[in-house]
Amino acid sequence: MGQVRDLAEALWSGSLSTADAHPFTAFAGLEEYRPGLAFVSAFANVVAASTGEGLVLIDTGSFFSGEAIREQLRAWSTAAVHTAVYTHGHIDHATGIGAFEAEARPRGAAPLRVVAHRAVGARFERYRLTAGYNASINARQFRFGALAWPTEYRAPDAVYDARLDLDVGGVRFELHHARGETDDHTWLWLPEHRAVCTGDLFLWASPNCGNPQKVQRYPRDQAEALERMAALDAELLLPGHGPPIEGASRVREALTTTAALLRSLHDQTVARMNEGASLDQVLASVRAPAELLGRPWLRPVYDEPEFVVRNVWRLYGGWWDGDASRLKPARDEALALEVAALSGGAAALAARAEALSARGEHALACHLVEWAARAAPADLVIAATRAEVYTRRAATETSLMACSIYHDAAGSRPR
Known about the structure:
The chain is 45% helix and 16% strand. It is an alpha/beta fold.
């Protein structure tokens, strides 16, 4: 087997954990999975299919990885790129196209065609509108440091709504729309190769359907899309992150268990909402099935079930959590000063937070130390205690999102 297949086998068997070979960091290079079908394992993966009219790319990587991906593909094929399909508009999937268009211009090749769901254009407009915010939250989420968020995007030449069938050089590509991690997602069925390209609807981790810093996600819709893919009896799963999965039984298991996890979280949350529970009560009672979270491809190393529950609440219930005191709350600073006064001062709050943190009660410790820091923002001892409390909490978390936010808090002042 090649390096990508070796990685896939180690992850599937559990001999290597996604905590150690994270699906958002592993780069294993290019491997051909079928004659005329190549997979580039990168931060965000790219699939290339040979046709009688040139290459079809499924995703293009990002503006900072596009050239490296192009070089990998050129070692495999010198054919011109005919069509690129965006599985969605996230910049790690849809902004590497510049490397291929720059390559085509000097050769005098025909312009390549870009195909995507209709909603990708609206995503690009939103990204332009919120470039500063996206730079900030993605730098925090991935701990990049300063990040220049792009404001120019290669728009699709052709868009579709529910389904689009393409024939390029005698090879068929079936494009299907599904909401899930995004509202503009496309998954593809390649019948000639018995392969399904999932985009980020499957990514070797507990589904990214709750992200606390991003827009609305759609767990039930994503589960339905995964079940539709599973019904195809594909023999090859090519994901947006992480290595491919081979074999019809493995592909079906990966897709159906991911769908089952999302359905469980969705249905439990909706049931509690229908009983009149508050968000706090929902979070206290909804549990992801342990037998699903234990699967090597469903560990919460990126997003996590609690965040998915919150997104289900937001989808159906809005932003208010059911606690009347938080409908129009006092300012954080005012609340912190009042709690500090009742507690004997900010230093007392910080000391209690330190004690709670030391015995593993991290959630309570974070509340108290945050109040202490807001009540006494110039106190360097309290600031150091706050940093230590958040550092300890980050060390106990499994998801990249939670770890990154707590590490960011440890190194910054209260917002």
